[in-house]
Amino acid sequence: MNITQTEKGENLISIKISVEKADYEEQLNKSLHQLRQRANIPGFRAGMVPMGMIKKMYGTSAKMEVLNTLVSDSLNKHIVDNKLNVIGYPLSDLDNQQPNDLEHQVDMDFYFEAALRPEINIDYTNTMVDFYHIVPEEEDIERAINDIVERNPDTSHPDNVGENDRLEVKIREAIDGKEVEGGYEKDGFYFHMDQIKDEECRNQLIGKEVGSEFIFNFAKALGSEEAAAKMLGEGAPAASDFNIIIDDAIRNEKPELNEEFFEKIFPKQDVKDLDTFKTKVKGEMEKQFEAETDPILFNKMIDELVAAVHFDLPDTFLKRWIVENSQGKITTEDVEKNYEKDYVKGLRWQLIEDSIASANSELIVTDEELKQFVLKQIFPGIDYATLEDDMKANLDKIASNYLKDAQQVEHLKNQLADLKMTAFLKGKMNINYTETSYKDFLAKLEEERKPKE
What we know:
By secondary structure, this protein is α+β, with helices and mostly antiparallel strands. The chain has helices at residues 21-38, 51-81, 138-151, 199-205, 218-222, 225-232, 259-265, 274-308, 315-325, 332-359, 367-378, 389-402, 406-428, 438-449; strands spanning 2-9, 12-19, 86-92, 108-116, 129-134, 154-156, 166-175, 178-179, 185-192, 213-217, 241-253, 431-436.
């Protein structure tokens, strides 16, 4: 067998594989003998069908199968041995390939066309992207602080029930003031005083000592049996009286904006006064805005690189490759009509991205990075490095279970790869930032998305 390679054009080659009888004869004979052993033909015992009949019936198809495997393996080996950096996979070379007569021809030639990845040189200093740095307005900061305060109340457990407390109670079904033996009961049942609509029932609860035991009707308290059934859960006699015992009153109150609160929100960051706290909140908001807008910036950086980095593509080959790779979903006419609009940018960016990634090993997503990425999504507030070994082991097990789905793993890898590429390009490309408010940013974004007349 002989393999030769010739250039056909810019980043395009032709590979000729010349096959002789000696290259496939042994494997073909083996295949025919296997077919003979399996053949079930009336008038002949198993394995006793004449070889001439087997060759006549299956010879051409068996030869085709053997040649397909041989040629495919040889083509792949040639690509690997010669370190050919191809785009997609080779196609039949329509300019050179002639029909082979498998039934009568002994020696045959097979021609393939392959597109080579172009050499890509990126000059990041020759790029410029206009974008926005979102600066929170004073009212935005105040809203954020109010939200932090609401999510981090001072919690106490008073001895007596207040009008805004959350209660933990035991409930026991009761009739005529007495618990029903074998009736409905539930421990560790919670409800909030805000849910109690009936004024008489609210007054019945307010001021009660923790540990108090008394008869209570949830249907009356909530305003309907339907509301009581929803709160109590399936199987509960919603209309019934209940003997309830108050186990705990949980009171959340607005915390003071003092040093203790600042330390709770920003531990070990030496925040001692309100102005410093506001500055910290502003900084965190800017980081959040940046994370939200990075995908938009990433797309703008892609557009800039696709426009700024010049290299030739073997367009005729790629159009054929798109059609064949679509498994019948895309026609030649579709590609010809939409090639520039729908395909070229994606192809060019894929080649640029691969070139950047191959030159910068830090962009490769490692298993450890993927695990940490998953854990941050599931447990966003946990600092993995500070955990005890047994807790780390438990989290590792959770991450491993989460990563058993191959499709999910691929999705997460792509997501993390985009984040790493975004950070890399932000550090390399020239970005002209304009400060703006979040409200104005959304307005500018809406304007940019309007179709141009």
